[in-house]
Amino acid sequence: MAVDVILGLQWGDEGKGKIVDYLAPKYDLICRFQGGPNAGHTLNFGGEKHVLHTIPSGIFRENLVNVIGNGVVIDPITLAKELKAVRAAGVVPEDNLLVSKKAHLILPTHRMLDQASEAFKGKAKIGSTLRGIGPTYMDKTGRNGLRVGDLESADFEQKYRVLKEKHALLLKLYPEIDFDLEAEENNWLAQVETLRKLRFIDGEYFVNEALDQGKHVLAEGAQGSMLDIDFGTYPYVTSSNTVTAGACTGLGIAPSKIGEVIGITKAYCTRVGSGPFPTELFDGDGENLARLGNEFGATTGRPRRCGWLDIPQLKYTVMINGVTQLVMTKIDVLDTFSEIKISTSYKVGDKCIDHLPFDIVDQKMKPSLEAFTGWSQSLDEVRTYQELPKEATHFIESIEAKLGVGFSMISTGPERSKLIPR
Ligand code: GDP
Ligand code: IMO
Ligand code: MG
Predict the structure, then answer these.
(1) CA 103 from chain center: how many Å?
(2) What is the CA radius of gyration of the chain?
(3) For the CA of 12, the nearest ligand
(4) What is the spatial distance between Cα 167 and Cα 356, in angstroms, rounded to a whole number?
(5) Per-residue pLDDT tens for 269-286?
(6) Among protein residues, the one whose CA lies closest to atom 5 of ligand 2
(7) Are 413 and 380 in contact (CB under 8 A)?
(8) Which is nearest to 267 in space by CA: 324, 327, 227, 198?
(9) Is any atom of ligand 2 closer than 6 Å to the C-beta of 127?
């Protein structure tokens, strides 16, 4: 069997959690492959909202296994809070949540370093979620990291102390920050014990054996392709490979094992944190997108910047990921717009370009926009593609024609049931 991949094609928050939760019953394994508690994946069902940061979005479905893969970075404190929340919702996570021994641990001092590094950057800050993501991946690639499997070794505390001492030296280079290390450390050590109650696995063997047994595996991406460490708007990115290739390294599966690549895009565009955003709106349309889309970060609560859908940007991420099917979310947010726009190219100086330039961070890019007539009606009761107003299908089909890939699902609301299969 092959591994299907779900990932975000923009700057994150495309609605990955909702789509993974919807599709989960078709799979035996749901695996997170990168990122960590910087992610906030929202699921809505039974009138309740659940936000997951580290745990895969299949956790509420029965008869399937959720895997936190080696590419993920885990903060035992956040994970313990999530475990408590899913337990309160009736899930027994010890039964269906497994953790790769090769996943790296986020220490309290990683969060301190994240905070100090952002303070040092001042105005040029990344807008990090301050969850310690960057410093943890730095220790991973710098070959200093602590991994989940180290919890089973007799000298774990010694390894922890060595890394903490290295961090103390680094912190001397940065401005002082407000952080109660003693309290955070005590909590961290306590929650490490909670983490120890989960089953640790050799994730790469586990996933490949499942594939050999004919099991269906779904890899759940976090963040979005424009936040990818290699292909995003560097340096305003996260510190992992958020693209399809990240599923191979983050789970230990060969590229030849990748099946469907399901790319999710909102019907417009958002970004939280700093960095370039060519179609960003600073007018009433932008305010309406933010208000109607309730665009506040699921992890930090920060307001998300909003803008029109960006075709050159999506073409780029469709290419990098090898997307085989698209999903459009939040189309309902456009219900009241009399006119909806998308960007088809950019003007840079007196040049017209339709690719993302290397120096996107330094360029003043003005989007060239194409306008569509809105449908000006609620899509709340629409259940089939055929019932969609013709203005909406024209909008959807124009985008797929430009991207050269079809939409397999259209999402019309946060609830699990608000999904139109095609
Ligand atoms: P993720 O990080 O990609 O999982 O996305 P987030 O959960 O951070 O943000 C998506 C937000 O949009 C959440 O609040 C979802 O409940 C909500 N959402 C998802 N799909 C839809 C949709 O089709 N319409 C509307 N109005 N909201 C949606
Ligand atoms: P999900 O999985 C949206 C952004 C941060 C910041 C940059 C770097 O919910 O889509 P980091 O904490 O990784 O150092 O932050 O990346 N960012 C996200 N934006 N959705 C996310 O995850 C994000 N995870 C990180 O706002 O700009
Ligand atoms: Mg999110």
Answers:
(1) 17
(2) 21
(3) 2
(4) 37
(5) 999 999 999 999 999 999
(6) 128
(7) yes
(8) 327
(9) yes
pTM for this prediction: 0.98
The pair of structure tokens assigned to 114 is 């994240």
Q: What is the mean pLDDT of residues 218-222?
A: 98
> Ligand 3 centroid vs 6 CA: distance in angstroms?
14
Which atom number of ligand 1 is nearest to the Cα of residue 8? 3
| Size (the chain), residues | 422
Tell me whether residue 53 is one of the annotated catalytic residues.
no
Q: CB under 8 Å to 60, separation ≥6 — which residues?
A: 21, 43, 45, 50, 86, 89, 91
Contact assessment for residue 74 and residue 104, using Cβ atoms and an 8 Å cutoff = yes
pLDDT tens column, 347-373: 999 999 999 999 999 999 999 999 999
- Tokens representing 374 are 């809105």
- Element spanning 18, H or E: helix 16-23
41 included as an active-site residue = yes
Q: Which residues make beta-bridge pairs with 342?
A: 309, 370
Instruction: Tell me the CA–centroid distance for residue 280 and ligand 2, in Å.
Output: 17
